[in-house]
Specification:
single chain, Rossmann fold, four-stranded parallel beta sheet, 8 helices, about 15% strand, binds [(4R)-2,5-dioxoimidazolidin-4-yl]acetic acid
């Protein structure tokens, strides 16, 4: 069965989109095609509530296009899962957020996990998602490397080393059995860190790919019974004109 998965980087960084696409393709099953995309307009990196709201519009734009292309799943490859429920209304195929995917996988291999993300101000977003998805009691601690998201793409290696150091600290101090990487731009670090730390270090991009493949194999699509039914048709204006 051939599966086409649209992997949406909600920020407009072309380099991060490519990095996320490579990580997704690396774990994709033989019959799975990855379409890595990002919004045509929006915010270059997502580092707070305002950025999440701006990015969510771009996510919806991409989900609509993916639905028209007939993809078998959509992945929102930003740790804030921006626009997840709105995207599920718009989509027929499954829509998976990388934070949600990573949290689920972490609880399957450990009783407690820690999170390592970028800026301290985004820790609250991760906390809100843990509460929303019902994982708060599984989370031992949340850490921020205090570097901006695009530091992961600057080629210096500083952000990657900071992630490694925070993961080592979390393993030493948190009483956690696994670590969740809190940024789509960290997707390429998980396997190396898992080997070095000798504990599961989980990236949500690759976790989401395997979840979409499983849902597709079971022919499970987003429920259109109830609150995730398609949006009520109404005239949208301005930049939202073609969104539904
Ligand atoms: C992400 N921001 O995964 C988040 C990470 C964060 O542009 N891609 C972004 O720190 O919230």
């Amino acid at each position: 069965m051939s599966v086409v998965i649209q992997v949406i980087n909600p920020n407009t960084s072309a380099a991060m989109t490519a990095s996320i696409g490579r990580a997704a393709q690396a774990v994709a099953a033989p019959g799975t095609e990855i379409l890595a995309v990002c919004p045509s307009q929006g915010v270059p990196s997502i580092e707070g509530h305002f950025d999440e709201a701006v990015a969510a519009v771009g996510v919806l734009e991409q989900v609509r296009q993916g639905r028209q292309q007939g993809v078998q799943g959509h992945i929102i490859a930003c740790f804030g899962d921006p626009g997840l429920l709105a995207a599920r209304e718009l989509a027929q195929a499954p829509v998976i957020g990388i934070a949600e995917a990573a949290f689920h996988f972490a609880t399957l291999v450990a009783t407690r996990f820690s999170v390592v993300t970028t800026l301290p101000r985004t820790l609250t977003i991760a906390r809100h998602l843990l509460q929303q998805y019902g994982f708060s009691h599984h989370c031992a601690a949340l850490h921020a490397i205090d570097l901006p998201v695009l530091a992961l793409e600057d080629g210096s290696g500083l952000a990657q080393e900071s992630v490694r150091e925070r993961c080592l600290q979390a393993k030493r101090e948190d009483g956690c059995g696994a670590i969740v990487l809190g940024c789509g731009g960290m997707a390429d670090l998980a396997q190396t860190l898992t080997a070095e730390l000798n504990m599961p270090v989980i990236d949500g991009v690759t976790a989401a790919v395997k979840l979409v493949e499983s849902l597709a194999a079971l022919r499970l699509t987003t429920s259109k019974h109830g609150d995730l039914d398609y949006p009520i048709t109404k005239p949208l204006s301005g930049l939202f004109r073609n969104l539904n």
